[in-house]
Amino acid sequence: MGSPGLNQARAKMVEAGVDPAAVEVFAHYYRLLEHGETGMIPESSIDPVDMPHLDDAQVDPEVAAEAVRHTAVIKLNGGLGTSMGMDRAKSLLCVRRGLSFLDIIARQILHLRREYDATLPLVFMNSFRTSADTLEALARYEDLPVAGLPLEFLQNKEPKLRVKDLTPISWPADPDLEWCPPGHGDLYTALVGTGLLDRLIDAGYRHVFVSNSDNLGAVPDAKVAGWFAASGAPFAIEAVRRSASDKKGGHFARRKVDGRIVLRETAQTLPEDRAALADLDRHRFTSTNNLWFDVAEMKRLMEERDGVLGLPLIRNEKTVDPSDPSTPTVVQIESAMGAAIEVFEGAQTIEVGRDRFVPVKTTNDLLVLRSDVYDLGTDFVMDQRSDDLPYVELDADYYRLVEEFDRRFPEGAPSLREADAFRVDGDWTFGRDIQVVGDVSLERPDGAQRVAAGTVLSSSDLGEGLDG
User: Fold this and answer.
1) CATH class for the domain made up of 4-356
2) 247, 299, 318, 361: which is the annotated catalytic residue?
3) pTM score of the predicted model
4) For the segment 83-128, what is each residue's pLDDT rounded down to a tens digit?
5) Structure confidence by residue, pLDDT tens digits, 269-297
6) Which of 160, 312, 401, 432 could form a disulfide with 330 if both were Cys (CB 3.0 to 4.6 A apart)?
7) Which segments of the chain belong to CATH 2.160.10.10?
């Protein structure tokens, strides 16, 4: 029978045409939520984990090339960038030279196809909000689609639930806001429900590489593909050493009860364990969200579990309108695709260089990506040109939204190649050819200020070139 809330949610999903498999997965998580499951992973239940580095892996070039020829690429592209004031796919943001994330991703794939004589299909997992814009932007790349495979498939959607009784919320002012994506753990359900997993198997692909579209470092690199193919693992995730900017983020650990590797997200960490979460010496590795899986093993496990992979629940509370904190609080039932590492026997992790993890979550990240810290190579890979990434912190009152950010950097990003840190407090506008050297902090001025073209900002002298 189910509870009234679950029955209402089921009916709403069926009426909206949501795939039946996705409805069953939602029902699985709803029951967990209803019975008080929080998805929390106590610090006492895990140990730190260590792992090998890709630099130490010996991969035969022929094995690597063959692996690329049997790999398909999926990019998660459902995000709108609402935290940066966007209402379109975040991957439409310009990175440099008039090229967006989508442009660079498409050109990376086309280059690798030529280099390895590989089909290397590229498929985007879009949301109902990003599909049209994405396909329109990619239409210029006529040779990008692969015969027999789609250029996109849609992630599922589910109702947002009222906190007090877990019934679907109604929001007549904007009915779209009644729905949310189920987190990127929905990848596996959507692959099966759309038939894409079977089509990949029938076409002879053995491995899938998945990554976020806002991470231009996530190229389907031949060495990583070769390592994964040679490992025999059914599932693997690329990891990087956590830095100061990752203190609040998720990390890998080993579960004491069965020795499985787990991925603990911030939302799965108890308040009393937040200090351990932030301890970079204890938990040293975070996920890049670049993952690899064997398509045959994925199909076998999904069939064995009747379409419910059983990823850990993430209970996420937000407001029904994410841009308006005064709107009612709702519960979103989510799961993380990386959490599948604990489901697969023999799953592995491998440490990679930070150059494979260049996510853009804020305008701070966008400034670094647009700066000369990275060069865009002829292979359209973002090559890191400085030894360490500078720490950037822009005043959220003036730079959080992309429109406001662009207005204050009208001539492009300053040079950050010799910067250690760049903090901007207050309303500053930057001219052309600004250079930041060392650790620089601009203090909040009285009113708006402008940094004149050609100014060198350094920790030793911040006076010259600052116009009132």
Assistant:
1) alpha beta
2) 361
3) 0.93
4) 888 888 999 999 988 999 999 999 999 999 999 999 999 999 999 8
5) 999 999 999 999 999 999 999 999 999 99
6) 160
7) 363-467
User: Which residues share a beta bridge with 458?
Assistant: 437
Domain 363-467 has CATH 2.160.10.10: yes
Catalytic residue check, 318: no
Indicate where the chain has its CATH 3.90.550.10 domain(s).
4-356
Mean pLDDT of the chain: 94
